[in-house]
Structure formats: structure tokens, C-alpha cells
Amino acid sequence: MPSTAAKFVPPVHLPTVESDTKPSLMPTPIPESNCNIVSKLLQGLIQPPQEQTRLNIADPELIKEILNKPDVFQKPLPETGKIIAGGIIFLEGEKWAKHRKIINPAFHLEKLKNMVPAMSLSCSNMIDKLKCMVSSTNEGWYEIDIWPYIEDLTGDLISRTAFGSNYEEGTKIFQLQRDKVKLTLEILKFSFIPGWRYVPTKTNRKVKAIANELHSLLRGIINKRQKALEMGVAIPGNDLLGVLMESNSRINQDHGNKNVGMSVEDIIEECKLFYIAGSETTSSLLVWTMVLLGQHPEWQTQAREEVNRVFGRAEPSYEDLNQLKIEVLRLYPPAPFIVRGSTETVKLGNLTIPKGVHLTLLIGLLHYDPKIWGDDAKEFRPQRFSEGVSNATNIQSSFVPFSAGPRVCIGQNFAMTEAKIALAMILKSFSFELSPSYLHSPFSVVTLTPQFGAPLILRNLESKSVY
């Protein structure tokens, strides 16, 4: 039987510098040595870009003020970010407001209830695969890196919930989006070279080919549904795309102009964003929940007892999902830092921020601040939220896992619903612990992910060897 002592740096510790692989809630920058080599090779050929003035912010009141003024502090997104996805995340002003109004109905709680069966089906399929692997051994347990399975699960979830009857095409879209993200990360290594993404390298050509295929697939699905709408034929209303298109059509009808709402190109970009935001956020939340519960068996047992008490042997229903209380988003926020840029010279607290300064909001440090959360801020204590977020601390703006203000994450309820369904079904089926091979290294890519995977030791609770 495997040892239960996992060799890892627990999440309660802040970053250290004793080793080359440092646990951290911050992204790993490009090694300076790599930049120097390329800079020397290109010396005299290009003018290196000027450094951007940056200011780090960890004060909760200043963070709240920044996030509540989206017109003054906007997202300074790099051009390379548009390779991965477009959509509302890149918009500002009136166009952002229009898109937000059209998209909002897709994430209403009543709509999410209709998506629960599709979410449960995806979770059941993953659990069946894991049970087969566990039962393939005579040991009663099976060691597996759960991270790739969670990534596949969230991709399957978004494919079903976003495209419904077009599930097979949705699965293809997810795979293409995932490939594009990986290739884009390669391109980002050279982002300090102006115009690098336009150079016809092998990677850039692959990204362009994937982008064209993605665009073609999405346009085909959307055009079919658009024609059905124009002919008065009912389109699927239980998936994100269907709700989005119905909302868009309603806006056009209310104004008597089909050009008032989103164009087909706009909808295509929003669909791309569905995949990135819908899968990345949920997979980050799920994997860190399993890591923490694997590290704290007493909380895993308590969570399982709650699941069995609330759900029994039946599939979970939406009304009961909020019974599951987790603290993972505080310890591992999907986006451990948020960047905003000042569009004008502005007063912020007792500071005067010049135009063009980039403000890095250190959400990870905010969530670990003992002055806010107490001496146990670095500990995993789900009971701190037993009476809700508002009673966990005396500073209301100190918990911002999904950003805040007018541009708070539009899909946070969607992500939480997915994660709670998946976690409930996993806890009913398996007990698990961290493998001794687990190496703790949170790494920020699109969201906060385990850089070296999340190897767990699974035991099937339906196996007699468990009892």
C-alpha cells in the first residue's frame, strides 16, 4: 500500500528561493539570459521596446476602487493575447456594454439549471474511465496524474454546454483551441521582439492554420442556427450558443434593425472565449480542490459526508450545490494577479497615477494577508466561510477570485456550478490522497495550474477493499 506522506511544499507557504522550481502564485518570467542572447543577435536590427511603468497594488480598498472604474483603468491586453481568443474581454466602452447585455442571459441561474444534466453526463463519463483504471489492478488503488483528466473533463463540459446538439463539432473546436493556446505560449516567449508573431515561422503558420479552421467550424455552426432563426425554426435553447443567439435576435427585433446586436464575427469571438474562460477557470478550481482535499483527508471525509447527506445516491440537483463550501478560490485564485492601465492622470488613494501606468493587482497576496484573514491566513480552513464570504473577514473587498466591479467575471456562476457538480460526483465515487511524487508548483499560464501535474492515489469507494 502506498505511503500517505506526500513530498511537496504545502500551499500554506509563500514563495521561497531555495530551489530552481519555486512554489509561487506569480507567473514565471522569461529567463533574462534568453532575452540577452536574442537581444545581442538582433542588436542594430530592431529598437527594443521601452519598459512599461508598473505599480503593484495589494491594498483591498485601492483594488476595489480600480476595479470599480473600468473607464479610467482599462485592460492593457497585449496583441499576442488576441491570438488565443477575442470577445468581450478585449472590449471597452459602449461595445463592451452591448456585448455584456446580450451575453448575460446565457449565464442566468435559471439557464444554468437546464445545463446540469449535460454537466453530469460529462462527469459520469470521466468517472467511468477512472473506475476502469482503478479496477484494472489488484491493489485496490491506482496512481494517476489527475490534471490531464480534469482538462479533458472541462473541455467536454464546455463542448456540451456551449454547443449542445453540435457536441462533436464542439469537441473538435475545444481541441483546436487547446492546441492554439499551447502554440501561442511558444510565441509569447519572443513577445519582446516587435512583430514576431507576424514572422512566418513554423509555429506562427500552425497558429494561423488552426485559427482558420476554428473560424470555419464556428461560422458553420452559427450560420446553421441563424438560418433556422430566420425561418422561424426553434433552435436549441439549453446551450450557451443558443441562449446567446436568442438574446442577440431579441435585441435586433426590439430595435427593428438586425445590425444593432452582435455580428456573426462577434459571436464567433465570444464562442472562442467560452472555451478559454469556461474550461480554464473550472479546471483550475477543480484541480486545486482535489490537491487540497488530498492533503487534508479530514476535510475530504467531511466534504464527502456532506455530499452523501445532501445528494444521497441520486444525481446532484442545482438547488443543493451551494451546500458545498470550499476555500480553494482564496488560496488558489484562477487569476492570481490582474493588470489594469490608467487612461488618464488620476488620483488613487493618496497617490497620483500618471496616464499609461500599468497597475498589477496582487490578488494572490491579498488572499494571503494575515492582517485581513487572521494568523491562519496561510492555512486551509473551509470553515472560515461557513457563514458566507461577507462574515469571513471585516473587509468586504478582500476576496476577489473572479475580479470585481462592473467587469466581474460574467461566467463565475457557470464555473462554480461545473466545479461543484464534478467535485460532488468525484467524492461519491473515490477517496484520494496526494502521491509521494507530487511536486507543488502553482504556475500561471492562462489561469493558475499545477506546473508538474497533480498525481493522486485513487481508491474506488465501491470496492470492498476500501471499507
Structure commentary:
The protein has one domain (51-466): Cytochrome P450 (Cytochrome p450, Orthogonal Bundle). It has 15 helices and 11 strands. It starts with 31 loop residues before the first helix and ends in a 7-residue tail after the last strand. The chain is an alpha+beta fold and 467 residues long. The strands form 4 sheets. A 4-stranded mixed beta sheet has the order 1-7-4-2, with helices on one face.
Structure summary:
Helix content is 48%, strand content 9%. The protein is of the alpha+beta class.
Write out key terms for the chains shown.
467 residues, alpha+beta, four-stranded mixed beta sheet, three-stranded antiparallel beta sheet, 48% helix, 9% strand, globular
Q: Report the structural category.
A: alpha+beta
Radius of gyration, in Å, reads 23 Å
What is the count of distinct domains?
Answer: 1
The count of β-strands is: 11
Q: In CATH, what is the homologous superfamily?
A: Cytochrome P450
Compute the average pLDDT. Answer: 82
What's the CATH architecture? Orthogonal Bundle
Shape call: globular
Organism: Rehmannia glutinosa (Chinese foxglove)
Protein name: Cytochrome P450 protein
Family: Belongs to the cytochrome P450 family.
InterPro entries: Cyt_P450 (IPR001128), Cyt_P450_CS (IPR017972), Cyt_P450_E_grp-I (IPR002401), Cyt_P450_sf (IPR036396), Cytochrome_P450_Monooxygen (IPR050665)
